[in-house]
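User:
Care to share a sequence and structure tokens?

Assistant:
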Amino acid sequence: MEKNKYRVIFTDIDGTLLNSDHRISEKTVTALKIWTDSGRELVLASSRGISGIEPIIRRYNLSCSVIALGGSVIRDKNGSIIYEAGMNIKIVKAILEQVRIAKLPAAWSAYSVAKWIANSKDDPGIINEAAIVEASPTGYDLSLFSDNEKIGKVLLFCKPGTIDMVEESLKGSFPELSIAKSSDILLEINPKGITKASAVHEYCRIKGIALENTIAFGDNYNDLHMLETVGRPVIMGNAPADLRSRFNMITLDNDHDGIATALEKIMC
């Protein structure tokens, strides 16, 4: 039967799995635990660092793997890193130098598996991010990265109304990088070819799962390629209108149990 072919769910976190209070609804937690208790797999696919995902896993006692940093890192449900990609420190410095020279209105953070380096402990965007993900930067100086450390993501906190300009500027200067919006103020910068979609491919290759047997949930532009990759894409009702128009299955928004509602329809 169609409903029995699906083996893994990939779900975005912010704006998808979490509601506006940054919590998972009881109905969605129950639906996901029924899913994993049946022997199927759950993968949280996020642009967050691992330190910002772990509080969610602990709070809800989820049995899941993790795609972190927008696809740069994959950690299995046993806690082992099974895939890691990243930029070297020279590329990261070049990105941030461009931000400085062009006077782009954005604060920044850079992430590896174990580190979150921010440019300021006083920037409101970084303070807000730390509160949301329930984690804090590990430092405020790029020299804390070693020369051979893989830096999985640079995150820019753009001033309201400027993100399109910042995105255009950086895409023009760094066409080889993966650059995508994850909100109206957050711009994600990943290594060449690294997206949530590339991590979905890698995860399925490692686990021996056919892409046609996968489901994904997402709500924003950095979820687009992941949604286009899986067998059953589901777009959240709170996604931008132009994204909703690209997919057949639109569920309720993240404040009204969108994931649980869609799973009921898919698995009935």
Q: What stands out?
A: The first helix runs from residue 13 to 17. The first strand starts at residue 8 and ends at 11. The two ends are 11 Å apart (CA to CA). Residues 27 and 118 are 36 Å apart (CA to CA).
